[in-house]
Amino acid sequence: MGFEDVALQSRILTLMTLSFHIIYATIGVGVPLMIMIAQWVGIRKNDEHYILLARRWARGFVITVAVGVVTGTAIGLQLSLLWPNFMQMAGNVIALPLFMEVFAFFFEAIFLGIYLYTWDRFEDQRKHFLLLVPVALGAAASSVFITIVNSFMNAPQGFDVLNGELVNVSPLLAMFSPAVPTKVAHVLATAFMTSAFVLASIAAYRLMRGSNHIYHKKALFLTMKLGLVFSIATAVIGDFSGKYLAEYQPEKLAAAEWHFETESEAELVLFGVLDGEEPKYAIRIPYALSILAHGVPGAEVTGLNEFPDDEIPPLWIHYLFDTMVMLGMWLAFFSFVYVVGAWRGWPLIKKAWFRWLTVLTGPLAMLAIQAGWWFTEVGRQPWILRGYMKTSEGATTSGQVDLMIVLFAGLYVILGIGTVVVLSRMYKRNPVEKELAQRESEKGGEE
Amino acid sequence: MTLEIIGISVLWLFLFLYVIVASIDFGAGFFNAYSAFSDKQHILTGIIQRYLSPVWEVTNVFFVFFFVGIIGFFPQTAFYYGTTLLVPASIALILLAVRGSYYAFATYGAKINHRGYIYMYGLSGLLLPAALSPVLAISEGGFMRLEGGQPSLDYWALFTSPLMWSIVVLSIAAVLYISAVFLTWYAWKAGDEKATQLVRKYALIWAGPTIITATGIIFELRGHNPEHYANLLNLWWMFALSFLLFLGTVYLIWKKRNYGLAFILLVGQFFTAFFAYGASHYPYLLYPHLTIYDSFTNESMAIALIIAFIAGLGLLLPSLYLLFRLFLFDKDYVKGKSDYHA
Ligand code: HDD
Ligand code: HEM
Ligand code: HEM
């Protein structure tokens, strides 16, 4: 088996594990904030429904976190198993945020354990609410730290190479690479946005399925509002991410936009197919690429002609970029219509087809997350550490990666199916109506 | 103290903590499966769910801490161990997934108490130490070859090595022993007489195999790695201390007295043995290829990591204290009188 093959296999396994982990990680980062908001609203308004909402979300959340921990441990170990040469080098320069991430995990795991097992244990609801703050902070911090590592891979700095040796290492400089601000902000905003839409999907689905309880309506309105806020934030930060790319990774942007020649007043190409260097059947928006890249219609955008052939990322990332952006626009637009509609009492938002579209928001946001990560990671190719180490040089030489791909694929299928089955069974056995009635009668008994 | 020593001590300490908390977790799962098998399930299940469910994620982070930390402090280990451990580590990951998903799906979730699942979960508790402990054997040298500058594992030599197998047996016996002693204490605190008697019996059963295999390994080493063996003998007094602590634990358990103290002595026993073993391994991370000195990271990274570690501990210790106060030392919780699960 050739050397190249093992590198390809390692890429496939990494891709598989990360794509699976990112589903749970996104929920892990975003949902604690949603629970916090619901519980806070519940305490403020003294409304049982929101408190119960927080509680039921928390119950489902434990399950996704547990699978997130399992897959996260897998990817953490696999980075060393599959990319030993890269990790040896990266360990010298970017180990600090990875190490700090572990403390964020500790923090999150400890308080999550406490939070979950102390419902109604305190007289004062607000005390219990406070326990959730470290969970949300820890989860957000772990995504910040890992994204910092990923930023470093895209815009390495903080070290010099002298005769093949790493010298003048500055861990802090490496941590704060130019990719950090946009990347971290975009990742956080998308995690919040996606979590809001996932929860909205569930509420919309319950409403579709005949449960017309006010509880679900409150849940849907709350999450759609949050989805709207965060999808606007996502689009704005996404625009800044484009400007970052134009400045520091122009080849990624050019490949995403099929922008072959450096030129000013560049147009944005949406979808289409490539015929040689000519996009066909594409939607073209004049000046838009110049605006995305530099903020002014006349700006010059670097094209692929400025890079050697073997340093150009695969051109199919164009579709990934388009998918992400179109979904982002759609979700912002759709949640806007919903929120205005709910305010104004438009009958539209209660129509069955509209409800179905609402159910789709969660899966679509998750799809956008996948498209975004694939875009940014494949768009970094052929580099694993941009400008310093090629992906094939970072890979393991072990001959058994193919077997591991099969093994882990099986594992992820089982975990994925298990999550869906267990979650739906858990909520089916204990529907809201039943739980609300139960709480009512308990209260009655006490008073 | 040099930075290298600080680094390896921190890692070794966290590995030790992982060994203790993970043993409790692994062993409890096995006893649970065993009692399900012999229809005594109700005796242990409650205790396991009350104690283990809230803390297993924390247990897992100790493991993550170790493998992230070792890449941070000793990046070259990624090259040697990363390349060779693909298969054993992947198997360990799958087994960890079995355990994690058991908590997710069976204790938090829809309460799927399918027997097959309980058995798988229990079995994984034995297979995990068996999958992880060969790393210790590999670190003794002789199982890894460099071919064209690339390390590869000699599976045949490893699987036919008595050293490897004694380490595996020790790890399994130790897991069951540690877990049984802890559970004896916990069950006693919970006021559950039946469960206490059951796990107390397990503790006494597994004490013997633990100490016998541990001694056996020292003699295996004489043939396999004479240098390490000589270093071990120099630290004989630490092993003697460890043995005395062992006798203390067994005595207390036997006499049905002071289960709490018995567990503390057990921690002391493993602590001294673990650190004596580690110290005698010094300075090698992998005989004879890798020492803590030539694999160490640069100075600025080392200092940054140590500062991060101290800051992290400042955050961690109070939180851990809170966790234990609520779940380990809270009488009502331990006795299962209060159930506040979301
Ligand atoms: C819900 C998911 C989602 C949505 C709706 C969007 N994005 Fe995004 N995007 C991501 C999810 C994402 C991500 C998964 O979070 C990425 C992958 C890596 C990263 O930094 O964030 C990302 C990366 C990413 C990058 C590459 C950054 C880099 O490689 O450093 C750019 C230029 C954009 N996005 C731009 C946009 C624009 C202009 C959007 C318009 C609405 C947009 N994104 C919507
Ligand atoms: C290469 C990429 C990644 C690695 C190596 C990694 C590593 C890990 C590890 C080791 C865990 C388990 C921690 C534990 O035992 O508690 C974990 C869980 C987690 N990861 Fe990842 N991770 C990666 C990507 C991400 C990303 C992109 C995010 C967020 C956007 C994220 C957020 C989380 C969160 C919040 C958890 C806690 C479990 C949960 O809430 O689901 N991770 N990750
Ligand atoms: C933060 C969350 C991250 C996500 C979601 C993510 C996602 C991905 C995806 C989807 C791929 C496949 C790309 C391809 O096959 O071309 C990939 C590749 C890879 N990622 Fe990342 N990545 C993340 C961060 C990291 C980090 C922190 C590291 C290392 C410390 C890392 C290391 C790699 C490596 C080594 C590859 C294989 C090379 C490649 O094929 O691109 N990633 N990642």
TrEMBL record, chain A:
Keyword match Metal-binding: yes
GO BP field: aerobic electron transport chain
A GO cellular component annotation in the UniProt record: plasma membrane
Intracellular or extracellular location(s): Cell membrane
Ranges that cross the membrane: 20-41, 61-82, 94-117, 129-153, 184-207, 219-238, 316-341, 353-375, 403-424
Membrane topology designation: Multi-pass membrane protein
Listed GO MF terms: electron transfer activity; heme binding; metal ion binding; oxidoreductase activity, acting on diphenols and related substances as donors, oxygen as acceptor
Keywords noted in UniProt: Cell membrane, Electron transport, Heme, Iron, Membrane, Metal-binding, Transmembrane, Transmembrane helix, Transport
Keyword Thylakoid in annotation: no
InterPro entries tied to this protein: Cyt-d_ubiquinol_oxidase_su_1
Principal subcellular localization: membrane
Record family assignment: Belongs to the cytochrome ubiquinol oxidase subunit 1 family.
UniProt name for this protein: Cytochrome ubiquinol oxidase subunit I
Protein source organism: Planococcus maitriensis
Automatic annotation (TrEMBL), chain B:
Keywords linked to the UniProt accession: Cell membrane, Membrane, Transmembrane, Transmembrane helix
UniProt membrane topology term: Multi-pass membrane protein
Disulfide bond recorded as keyword: no
Alphabetical list of Pfam families matching this protein: Cyt_bd_oxida_II
Transmembrane helix keyword on record: yes
Position of the signal peptide: none
GO cellular component annotations of the record: plasma membrane
Location of the protein in the cell: Cell membrane
InterPro entries in alphabetical order: Cyt-d_oxidase_su2
Coiled-coil residue windows: none
TM helices/strands, residue ranges: 6-34, 55-74, 80-98, 118-143, 163-187, 199-219, 235-254, 261-282, 302-328
Family stated for the protein in its record: Belongs to the cytochrome ubiquinol oxidase subunit 2 family.
Protein name: Cytochrome d ubiquinol oxidase subunit II
Source species: Planococcus maitriensis
